[in-house]
Amino acid sequence: MEHRPIAVIGGGLGGLALARVLHVHGIDARVFDLEPSASARTQGGMLDIHEETGQAALREARLYEGFRAKVHPGGQALRVLDRYAHVVREEPDDGDGGRPEIDRGDLRDLLLSSLPEGAVRWNAKAVSCRALGDGRHEVVLADGTAFTTGLLIGADGAWSRVRPLLSARTPDYTGVSFVELDLHDADARHPDSARLIGGGMFFALGEEKGFLAHRETDGSLHVYVALRTPEAWLGTVDFTDAGAAKAALLRHFDGWDPALRRLVADADGPLVPRRIHALPVQHRWPRTPGVTLLGDAAHLMSPFAGEGANLALADGADLGRCLAGHPGDTEAALTAYEQILFPRSEETARQSAEGLETIFAPDAPQPLADMFARFDAAPR
Ligand SMILES: Cc1cc2nc3c(=O)[nH]c(=O)nc-3n(C[C@H](O)[C@H](O)[C@H](O)COP(=O)(O)OP(=O)(O)OC[C@H]3O[C@@H](n4cnc5c(N)ncnc54)[C@H](O)[C@@H]3O)c2cc1C
């Protein structure tokens, strides 16, 4: 049976950041991902990359300059509105670069192209993992092949197949569901909506629901319609029928300003439902030889602190640095890594949970506008 000294399950931002930092230090790792190829799925969405987490990781990976070249200019602008489309807070992109925005696909391509040929094995879905003793593990893939590894890293996201080796916890529904939609070629085809949303992040909130949106680099508008709703609600809507799905969504926004309702009515293409899950804020596990987790596999949280991708990058970079710093002593490296991981993810998961309450507050959007005002006033 094939043996890999280091096997990373999952080639998302976290797994790729780890592989890259290991490569920088001359350490080989193989990444296994279930996708058929690098380009199998469009990796849409804009990500704010924060200084102390995502940006620090990209420096560690020696990819900071490449990242800056792909930053979306103007993407740091912000608009916060109420349900009558009154603007309660507006910030231009002041160009200070504190939280630059990048397209998720561009960031992933940057990481992928920095790895040696063959570092990622596509079409490799892990279906089970078991401990063999002495810190070694066996992983079975969906095609029936298997391999053993001396160090197994679960970077396989929310529904990790590696996590059960360390923890019995699974993500819980947060009480919030999103429906994602796009308005293409917005300046030409949806000029009013383009002006409404502006160049960066956009929130229109009230009555424990709302619209979270941003402008993408291709000139489209990406909108998350966010609802506090029972877990089963999305299952009652037929998302294969866009007209019916729009009507079902719009019923939740009776009395909202027509400009906001138009974001749903005018959507191009399919509407995509997504339930928001999270692991417990204090999720951690006892040190277990030869295996650890990073990113969403370790600490899935709701997206309301905007840190999930940033933490995945930071975890990957920190784990890579710890392994490079403890040659021949994997357990010391994993201990050092988890000492960084656990307090950081706990603090951010708490902020995400608070962010959820801020966004879905009965008096929203005022608490969110106040939060951005506090950020603005804080010394840099
Ligand atoms: C709607 C929404 C908006 C968000 N917005 C932001 C934001 O603005 N800023 C931010 O920082 N974060 C944001 N996040 C969070 C962010 O997307 C995640 O935290 C981040 O992608 C986690 O990276 P990861 O590498 O840990 O996992 P993932 O990105 O989930 O990658 C996991 C990888 O593992 C692979 N995989 C899964 N299972 C297996 C298996 N069994 N075998 C092999 N491969 C497998 C997958 O194909 C995938 O490539 C958002 C999340 C959501 C849901």
Automatic annotation (TrEMBL):
FAD binds at D48, R104, D296. The keyword Cytoplasm applies. Its main location: cytoplasm. Its cofactor is FAD. GO terms for cellular component: cytoplasm. An FAD-requiring monooxygenase active on some tetracycline antibiotic derivatives, which leads to their inactivation. Hydroxylates carbon 11a of tetracycline and some analogs. This is Flavin-dependent monooxygenase. It comes from Streptomyces subrutilus.
